[in-house]
Amino acid sequence: MALHLKKALFRNSVFNSGVCAALAAILTPLLGAPVGLFWLAVVVGAVGLLTFLRTAYKIRQGVLAPMQELASYVRIDRDSATARKQVDWSLIDDYATQLATRGFRPLGDYTTYPSAPTLAGVAAMFADAEGSMIIEIQQLKLMPQAGTAANNEGIYFSIMSMVGGSIRVVTSNHKPSAVTYLMRGDHDVATCRPGSGLMELLATHTDLLLRLREKVGKAPSTGLTVERYVLAIREAQAHAHSRVSAMSGFAIACAVDRFDADRLLRWTPQIADLKEVPQRRLEELDHGFGSDVQPPIFHESLATQF
User: Fold this and answer.
1) Would the pTM count as exceeding 0.85?
2) 31: number of CA atoms within 13 Å, CB side?
3) How large is the average pLDDT for residues 203-224?
4) 246-276: buried (b, 16+ CB within 10 Å) or exposed (e) per residue?
5) pLDDT tens, residue by residue, 48-64
6) Can you tell me the distance from the alpha carbon of 150 to that of 143, in angstroms, rounded to the nearest whole number?
7) Mean pLDDT over residues 143-156, rounded?
8) CA dist., res. 300 & res. 302, Å (int)
9) What percent of the chain clears pLDDT 70, i.e. is strictly above it?
């Protein structure tokens, strides 16, 4: 559902200005304090402006907040009582069998940190033989809220490669959101195909890598691990934080409304820009976002839903 944030900005401002004007019209005669139309207009305008700025500030902070804490993962022990109760591992294992026949190896089971309070999720991760592609089989469940019933579990897939060591290529069957779009990396090539199955997504991702190699002249990097998968997310977060921090709340509202209007299912920089992205070894990603001054990639003893 479209948010129409830009309309909300103006609607809130007009509403509060109208309330202020109505109160002034009622109270001025009662208090016997005549106020000139000029000063009344100034007060009403100031209330409208302050409302606009406050709403824009809240929008900006709401978008920036998820970018403040760098992504980390938590390892899941699927033999634990909680994990066996919360996760239907048979669904994941069915897809794992399909991947094994195509040369993918398991990398373990994980959940994200920080976790969303309304969402429980676990991801089984797999890599191909060369480590040029990582696949997440995600089992997600919205937690029940007051007065509502819990939603059914859903299985989703996300596939990631790093082309030339710097271009993050992501193919998933998630329904894209404006927040996901705003949190993209500067060199991200993302494709969303809601409702698609794993093998269909894998074919789409493989074809995209071939086309990028042909048009951009860069091959997928090898040696991807779960650690580097998380570090690539952190790099995208850093890009997004730098970009969004330079935007006003109004500009963010316009970007969100524009995304909702266009209903983007794919976003990518221009081919000419991708050609200019310097190639690098994945070790440079390790040094940039996996150093000792960064938060730990894995939280080992964190209490989670799983």
Assistant:
1) no
2) 9
3) 97
4) ebebbebbebbbebbeeeeeebbbeeeebee
5) 667 767 777 777 777 77
6) 6
7) 56
8) 6
9) 74
Residue 10, judged by CB atoms within 10 A of its CB (0-12, 13-18, 19+), counts as middle
**Can you give the chain as a three-state secondary structure string?**
CCCCHHHHHHHHHHHHHHHHHHHHHHHHHHHCCCCCHHHHHHHHHHHHHHHHHHHHHHHHHHHHHHHHCCCEEEECCCCCHHHHHHCCHHHHHHHHHHHHCCCCEEEEEEEEECCCCCEEEEEEEEECCCCCCEEEEEEEEECCCCCCCCCCCEEEEEEEEEECCCEEEEEECCCCCHHHHHCCCCCCEEEECCCCCHHHHHHHHHHHHHHHHHHHCCCECCCCCHHHHHHHHHHHHHHHHHHHHCCCHHHHHHHHHHHHHHCCCEECCCHHHHHHCCCCCHHHHHHHHCCCCCCCCECCCCCCCC
User: What span, in angstroms and rounded, lies between the C-alpha atoms of 305 and 233?
Assistant: 22
> What's at 234, amino acid-wise?
R
Rounded Cα–Cα distance for residues 121 and 304 (Å): 10
Hey, where are the domains in the chain? 5-67, 71-239+265-289
Backbone phi, psi, residue 114, to 5°: -75, 150
267: Cβ contacts below 8 Å, ≥ 6 apart: 181, 184, 188, 189, 190
Distance CA 194, CA 172 (A): 8
